[in-house]
Amino acid sequence: MNIEIINIGDELLIGQVVNTNASWMGEQLSLSGFKVQQFTIIGDTREQILDALWKAGERCEVVLISGGIGPTKDDITKTTLCDFFGTRLVFNEEAYKDVESVFARRGYQVTELNRQQAYLPEDCTGIPNKLGTARGMWFEKDIPVPGRKGKTVYVSMPGVPFEMQAMMKEYIIPELKKRFHPKSIYHKTIMTQGIGESFLATLIEEWENNLPPAIRLAYLPQPGIVRLRLTGTGDDETEILDLVEKQADKLSLLISEYIFGEDDDRLEAIVGKLLLEKNCSLGTAESCTGGYIAHLLTSVPGSSAYYKGSIIAYDNGIKEQMLGIMPETIDEYGAVSSEVATEMAIGAQTNLNVDYVIAVSGIAGPDGGTKEKPIGTTWIAIATPEEVFSKQFLFGDSRDRNIRRAALQALNMLRKSLL
Amino acid sequence: MNIEIINIGDELLIGQVVNTNASWMGEQLSLSGFKVQQFTIIGDTREQILDALWKAGERCEVVLISGGIGPTKDDITKTTLCDFFGTRLVFNEEAYKDVESVFARRGYQVTELNRQQAYLPEDCTGIPNKLGTARGMWFEKDIPVPGRKGKTVYVSMPGVPFEMQAMMKEYIIPELKKRFHPKSIYHKTIMTQGIGESFLATLIEEWENNLPPAIRLAYLPQPGIVRLRLTGTGDDETEILDLVEKQADKLSLLISEYIFGEDDDRLEAIVGKLLLEKNCSLGTAESCTGGYIAHLLTSVPGSSAYYKGSIIAYDNGIKEQMLGIMPETIDEYGAVSSEVATEMAIGAQTNLNVDYVIAVSGIAGPDGGTKEKPIGTTWIAIATPEEVFSKQFLFGDSRDRNIRRAALQALNMLRKSLL
After folding, report:
1. B34: which of A12, A280, B29, B109 fits an S-S bond (Cβ 3.0–4.6 Å)?
2. Cα–Cα distance between A359 and A405 in angstroms, integer?
3. Global pTM?
4. Domains and CATH numbers, chain B
């Protein structure tokens, strides 16, 4: 059984609103073992809605629709649904009572616009909306598709995210499970840092070629990070979980030095957990990353338990005054050098009174590059209670991405030294 | 002329990645005067791709495709495109040179997987990719649709956002404009800070109700900022520009105290320009914003000309040691107080040796709130060469949004004091 999601709304097509409804629905459905085959996003005109309803029904056994049924006048979805299903709008007492009670809770009178929300297509099952005034509607229709058994299911929901989400969780997904008994599905994502997509692919080529057909692999790159997602599908839940986990273990052995976590793990949170376990504190000394590492670390709730602070020494004078770098070191080796990064790490360790330090000095661009030190040249130093070490990297030529890649690389170097 | 956007990628359908590509493309195209009719999001199987290509071509004269053409093996888009357009993959010397030069810049050897990126469909116009290895492909095909004049345009792009965005801006949108001559459209965005959407709406209600029909207004809220976008559409470019500018002037008078710029203006860049004009330097002292203000400031190319650095004093010990805050001040007033924010600003001004300082101390959450100082309580102090002043704000209960709102509010306070 395949599902198509239709989202209705001009605001989506002109990019005014990012379509988080579709991704939320896709995620929840796939976690429940359903296969979402397509998202279709259209404007709110009768022709587009009718075209999308027909084509979706031909492709999929279940069509979930969100948007276009709010209380404003430009909503024509409900009348178009009536035409498509050959039914008409009738006043629904029960739905009206729901609207009244929502308004009473907010201390408002029901307006005429909202009274119209109680008109529902005669031939549908209403789905209560505890959080708003527009009911969900569950329709069934014969769509002539070779091999299709039974009627095609269409469900229409409001576009307001929390109203849609409540309906999906409490009514629609449970109902779909009862009716379609989905296959077991299991996802596992391996998070890697410090290696590009094509190099990863070369390292794991043989393993990938020998994957059993029940498992698929996807590469999901972001600046500085590549996620590898394994998806297993089958009839037996335990079997498919075992199969995916076994393959994930094999994969992990091949690229262990690049793996920092799995699924929703974030480097800044992993580093924090390790510091808490060791009861150690962290500080940073940033030049080219300009506070981005501090920002990532402090975006984690509770980070004040281990993260003490940073000296952002964008200016060489501050490197000297606040981090105790010798002016001769900068003169002799340049601000972007192993020597300066190392002195930054040591200076911060002393002045911030912390156990560990991440120090970064580099050329983010677009200016400042030379032949010897092109844009993207970055030195990262890590100070631990035992030692200080540094490493040079050559990132790319985009300022934003250089900042992000340097920050993630630095966090991963710290993670490794904490292990 | 209508446009359909096809995004290919299982990661979109299972909700692992939110489809920001579609909304970015929709926004840019509609800003250029084009009408986007539909987004179609599909998985990377041959059948789905072929089905989507046919149906999109029947609906729209232009079909823009992103995703599915990276260097890894799960990409089958390119061979499916060949089948659809009745052509075959051939090795393209020019494309190979591009791949080589991207790799040479990064200091890498070209792998076999990346060599395959130089195989392109014979019957397409290649679109150079300065930021990656996968070329764009411009195809044209006769699609039998009553009333359609000329061939239908299909353009395939990589799914990596910045690669796709560069191709759209530099090549595809200009090419579409040359060919289809869209209606004149003129946008003007007024950037506001420090006031919520519904309060703005009340202030400008009368003006909004009297807008001429050729002009539309959109509210585009982000944490801390509301953008007001005026869009005029018409046949005469000069006329529509005048009309929009006149309305923008009227609007500006109504809400002048909240406006910090227009169109793509960013507060962090505006502040930088003002500092350069005054030949003054800036430092920051951050507690709850944890480096986010420094990150915003240093994300502006060339910011090292005025931004010297920051002391991120997440820990009270660092507030005392690096910023010279008296322990008694923290004991008496608490770290989130006018007194501490003021002392932070003065301490940073002295220690970083700068003309201006932004200092922030607040409770970002989720922990640390009290009855007297709930989560979101934030003190911002600004030190100028003449004075120090501070102000209290009460933001919301989301950590991420509190950090962002505090940072933007602080930058706007500095901007006003620089004027």
Report:
1. B29
2. 14
3. 0.81
4. 2-180 (3.40.980.10), 184-262 (3.30.70.2860), 267-418 (3.90.950.20)
